Amino acid sequence: MTAPIPPIPREIPDLPAIPWESTPVLQPSYVPVSAVVAPVRRPLVAAFRLLTALAAAGGVALEILLAGPARALSYFSVHSAILLVVVMLVSASRSWRPRRALPASITGAVLLYAVISALVYHLLLAHTNPPFTMTDATVPPVRWHAQWAALQVLHTLVPLAAVLDWLLLTPASRMHLRQAAGWLLFPLAYLIFTLSRAMFVPTTSPSRYLYPFLDVTAHGYRHSLANALLLGLAIYALGLLLVALDHARPTPTRRRV
Q1: Are 218 and 212 in contact (CB under 8 A)?
Q2: pTM for this predicted structure
């Protein structure tokens, strides 16, 4: 015989309510467009970046021809132009193939160095007496001559092209405030380099200190380091402004490439 079926209880006790505080809540997360939208081929962007790289490389080559490799390759603007050449070539290749864009920490750093080179030249060096040149010349560079052209390419044309590329061709809201401090490492390394370089140059040489505001012979270490500190603070402030503008400006393209 089969066992009797137990009777169904007339009342089923209610289950305890689940408190809302214990319910896991999924936090909203930002998913970049590049994670769901494949990059597209952008030949015009690639062409502009290639031309920018060629202009920067041409300015560096012309300056090396005029001043010599040892002197020309000691300037911050030449270093920043070389970095810009590399970044623009890689960015042009990724826009042509297409591939994902370079990290914003890299492109932002190179843009900052190019802008700093332009501002320092036009605000601090363009009207100094004796005139600032990247050669041993003691007279101002004549307009449209080779030295004047090299200065304008490195300190005006190339930085302007880098800014236009960032404003018109680079997606916005990819930089972070914490990156601004890391961008100071390269200027700090250059400061150590240029002060160390002066120790191996004869004291009578006019090219011992490449920038007048870092001339220890004329101003002493205290004044020169104070100038370097003020310039470093200005670079950091400009980096923070760059990050803020990157988040405030509208993105120029819907696809992150």
Answers
A1: yes
A2: 0.82
